[in-house]
Amino acid sequence: MQRLRVSQALWAMERRRPDGLEWPLDVQLDMIRDAGFDGAGVDFADLGHARIVTDTLRAHGMMWHAMCNPRTVDELKPIIAHVQELGADHINLQPNVRPYTLAECFPYLKGWQRLAADSGIPVHIETHRDRMTTDLMLTLQLLDHFPDLRLTGDLSHFLVAREFQWPVDEENHRLVHRILDRCWGFHGRVASREQVQVQISFPHQRDWVDVFMGWWEYGFRSWRARAPEDATLTFLCELGPREYAMTGADGYELSDRWMESRMLMDMVRALWARLDAEARVGHPFASAARG
């Protein structure tokens, strides 16, 4: 039976308040557990930090994603070694390079794919600004050249980078669907055409929330149609601190981001439950993405 697992990014637990008050790491992990998240996104560049966090998560029967930002092919090697020691659902790789041409991307992707295949550890390439995948069109061209490339879809970056007009037209939906058809995991935040992260609890942001819920529904359907019956789909809630989160003149955030993280978790779980219900009654769209 296919499953959805919703995690919380540890980076998103940072507060960055003007008064400097932060939640200690053990408090953050308790909050994530008590809120009902299935796991956490963990920076694996620091082995000591990763060991402390994963020990706690493991003790509570939770899962984790190994987050990394390699600048070279070889910089993935220690991350793989850390995952071989500590485990992880998958490695989430932000390709921290900015090639000028499409061809310059190839050695990086081939090298990372080779290391992933040799280790047997799934590696997902994240769509992200200021990375190799910053541009939607170039990323689509990469998918043409690498038909087995697995993505983590953080669609907020494509929306704000390309400033899709409102309402988002069918051609841009079609391009995003091509990305979604290659996603094997998702990072969740809601953007507008001018802001990478809007407050999902504010009523006037509902239109953008609906756009993203529609994209995630398409992505979930697409994944369910191509993933094995016993596979697990991961969704990482990643509502980040400032400068992702908008702040007022006093430097404090305009919304309760921790509450919104739990709200996002509930929204995507409800979406998944609806798709499960459709599958049980034989809905025609239960196992296929709608294009």
From TrEMBL:
Enumerate the InterPro entries for this protein. Answer: Xyl_isomerase-like_sf
What is the superkingdom listed in this entry's lineage? Bacteria
- Its protein name is Xylose isomerase
